[in-house]
Amino acid sequence: MRKRFFAPLCLALGLPLLVHAEADAPAPSIPEPTAFVSEHRGTFNGKAVSYEARAGETYLRDADGEPTASIFSFAYLAKDGGEDRPVTFVWNGGPGSASLWLHMGTFGPKRVVVPSDASHPGVPPYPIVDATETILDVTDLVFVDPVGTGYSRALGEHESTEFWGLTEDAASMAEFIKRWLSANGRWNSPKFLLGESFGTTRAALVAKLLEDEYRVALNGLVMISQALDYAGSSPYVRDNLISYVTYVPTMAATAWHHGKVDRDGKDLETFLQEARDFAIDELLPALFRGNALDAATRARVRDGLVRFTGLSPTYVERADLRINGFRFAGELLRDEGLTVGLNDARYTADPVDNLAARPENDAAGDAFSAAFTGSLLSYLHGDLGVDWDRTYLSPADPELSEHWNWSRKAPGDTWEPAWVNTAHDLARALEANPALRVFVAGGYHDLVTPFFDAEFTLRRHGIGADRVDFHFYHGGHMMYVHEPSRQALLKDVRAFMNGALRR
Question: Is the CATH number 3.40.50.1820 carried by domain 42-231+368-502?
Answer without folding.
Answer: yes
